[in-house]
Amino acid sequence: MEPVVALERIAFLLERADAPTYKVAAFRHAAEVVRGLPRVELLRRAVAGRLTELEGIGPTTATVITEAAADRTPAYLADLEQRARTPLVDGGRRLRAALRGDCHLHSDWSDGGSPIATMAGAARDLGHEWAVLTDHSPRLRIARGLSAERLREQLAVVAGVNRELAPFRLLTGIECDILADGRLDQDRELLARLDLVVASAHSELRMAPEAMTRRLLTAVRDPLVDVLGHCTGRLLGGKRRPESGFDAEQVFAACAESGTAVEINSRPDRLDPPRRLLRLAVDAGALFAVDSDAHAPGQLDWQIRGCARAEECGVPPERVVNTWTAEELLEWTRAGESEPRA
Questions:
Q1: Are 64 and 74 in contact (CB under 8 A)?
Q2: Which residues does 156 contact at the CB level (< 8 Å), separation at least 6?
Q3: Domain count of the fold of the chain
């Protein structure tokens, strides 16, 4: 096993296990250091025990590099691989096997931790045929949301990634903030050029239920919106945040009528919508997008959590847009728009 491969695989498995960011960063940084070293120098340092003299290489990463350079599976990696054999969640395997893509992932262009090409390559390696890059919109400054200018620049980068990774397809998209009045936080002309738009509320989440209902109804009825992201805005675990209040029956009925998919967000700190609301969306006849909302390569594997919840709540697989081919997905996102996409 090449040392770079071992280091990157460890980082992936740590991300999958939701390990602390600093620990993941140590292995990814070590991989970059090793990638820049001539093979002869790497081996010489490994044999002499001088890897830790390199900036960013500590005792643990040095041991991994030394073992991999000696054609041994590093013990650290073997332990992580053993733990990864335990499923993240019970259930979901049948739906996960049917998924062709992921409609919601982030890169280091906003608040993700990895380059676009790295995220796309990881999605491909997990068996996906396509994925949608959905970095944040301008209002979310804390997440380095993309201005219209930066988003246009990103479209050119995505085109280059697609030339490198074909036949895998990275589709253009955005996670667009839903403003307080239901409008979208980006130029409509630019949104119309994207392959898919996820619309999510990230601010003013405690507004009165009547106002939040109007806000979400305006968004899901917008012809440019394809997916309603993490609809309640809740957070679980240490950063706990309660659900936003809104009339779920009205909103999901509008999603069904407008052809807007309800996202089943697979992040362990979201798992949104809650099961009771997910069952309401099923009864309303809505479409669904089972998404990782990944901010790092290893988090792409979190989709299984959403698949398990979908199976548990009776979501019909044929109503999950991730089971469609890229061509079928694009036909859906472009259907019935008053502002045709370029």
A1: yes
A2: none
A3: 2
